[in-house]
Amino acid sequence: MNAMLETPELPAVFDGVKLAAVAAVLYVIVRCLNLKSPTAPPDLYFQDSGLSRFLLKSCPLLTKEYIPPLIWGKSGHIQTALYGKMGRVRSPHPYGHRKFITMADGATSTFDLFEPLAEHCVGDDITMVICPGIANHSEKQYIRTFVDYAQKNGYRCAVLNHLGALPNIELTSPRMFTYGCTWEFGAMVNYIKKTYPQTQLVVVGFSLGGNIVCKYLGEKQANQEKVLCCVSVCQGYSALRAQETFMQWDQCRRFYNFLMADNMKKIILSHRQALFGDHVKKPQSLEDTDLSRLYTATSLMQIDDNVMRKFHGYNSLKEYYEEESCMRYLHRIYVPLMLVNAADDPLVHESLLTIPKSLSEKRENVMFVLPLHGGHLGFFEGSVLFPEPLTWMDKLVVEYANAICQWERNKSQCSDTEQVEAELE
């Protein structure tokens, strides 16, 4: 009798287990996709000044909500993974000309030049000089998408191809790009200044490229001549401080470190004859045993220590990171500077963001923009599932550049008016 009474309760027990399993799965999905995170305008760090007030009025994206795709866009990991694997959606193919520059040490630097497709909003000749992320070049989809958008807004674009990054361009010296070497970027900028003497420059750097452009501007005051402004997106500011966080499993940084190290190994090994061949006059500190250590490297730090620092003769990894990071040069930049990071960037630890925050509190020319979401160079926009071809990042950089061009135009017009009034008096 008792068994007959208990039998009908068994399905209810099983239903409870199923509901618990479904609830557990939903909880994991909500946590992983960060669905409970709100959308909000980016956090802004700046000093109150005429320039900052003008930017807030002229750049709506600075004060509007950044709304990523509803299902997955609030996950920094998915934003980063989509950028890394896919780049962009329906990326255009802008047409440009490849330029070659022979460096003093025999290296052959290349960059691609794209002419504007429309008149600029202020009618001036403006060139964006662009430095991509680690091991990237002008053929990457996120670069193509940004260049196409900038061209349509009246900008000429010059995009550096990192030394050794293009698979069809051989190295002509035993050296490839490093974390903070500005030689190739400087050569590209000098070419643009010489070829287009009337042009003004907007400097743009993505990730590692952000470090290079900021370091370049801060190295010499002359490097800032004819520069209207600089934009850095998703850089880490200090490799020395970042190396500790990059070995942590928090936010899967150690896994990302491994993946990037594996990609770097492939690039270096594709140039093994130019870098390690018997006929090559290698840097004195670079030995054949470094090649064997390269095969077993599982982090960027090991690669930097065994190979990359030796291209420039640094005695230690600490010295290499200290000298090659832009952190010690940021305070020497006097042109308007916008630094952009995402709070959920899994590659850039939150402790590194104290650097741009502190800088923006001391310098009137600096604005630090920190949206909640975007990952590492993701910043996709979209309604529910499918992202738009153009990202929030693409639009923000061009909108900021347009505002700075208008700011400079207004300043020159005011100074001309004041000069005329003084002459009349």
UniProtKB/TrEMBL annotation:
Catalysed reactions, semicolon-separated: a triacylglycerol + H2O = a diacylglycerol + a fatty acid + H(+); an acetyl ester + H2O = an aliphatic alcohol + acetate + H(+); a butanoate ester + H2O = an aliphatic alcohol + butanoate + H(+); 2-(5Z,8Z,11Z,14Z-eicosatetraenoyl)-glycerol + H2O = glycerol + (5Z,8Z,11Z,14Z)-eicosatetraenoate + H(+)
Pfam family, one: Abhydrolase_1
Active site as annotated: S207 (charge relay system), D345 (charge relay system), H376 (charge relay system)
EC number annotated for this UniProt entry: 3.1.1.23, 3.1.1.6, 3.1.1.79
Membrane topology: Single-pass type II membrane protein
Superkingdom of origin: Eukaryota
Gene Ontology biological-process annotations: acrosome reaction; acylglycerol catabolic process; medium-chain fatty acid biosynthetic process; medium-chain fatty acid catabolic process; negative regulation of smooth muscle cell migration; response to progesterone; response to wounding; smooth muscle cell migration
GO MF entries: acetylesterase activity; diacylglycerol lipase activity; hormone binding; monoacylglycerol lipase activity; nuclear steroid receptor activity
Keyword line: Cell membrane, Glycoprotein, Hydrolase, Lipid degradation, Lipid metabolism, Membrane, Serine esterase, Signal-anchor, Transmembrane, Transmembrane helix
GO cellular component, one term: acrosomal vesicle
Domain AB hydrolase-1: 127-382
InterPro entries on file: AB_hydrolase_1, AB_hydrolase_4_CS, AB_hydrolase_4_sf, AB_hydrolase_fold, ABHD4
Cellular compartment(s): Cell membrane
Main location as per UniProt: membrane
Family membership: Belongs to the AB hydrolase superfamily. AB hydrolase 4 family.
PANTHER family registered for this protein in UniProt: ABHYDROLASE DOMAIN-CONTAINING PROTEIN, MONOACYLGLYCEROL LIPASE ABHD2
Protein name: Monoacylglycerol lipase ABHD2
Lineage: Eukaryota, Metazoa, Chordata, Craniata, Vertebrata
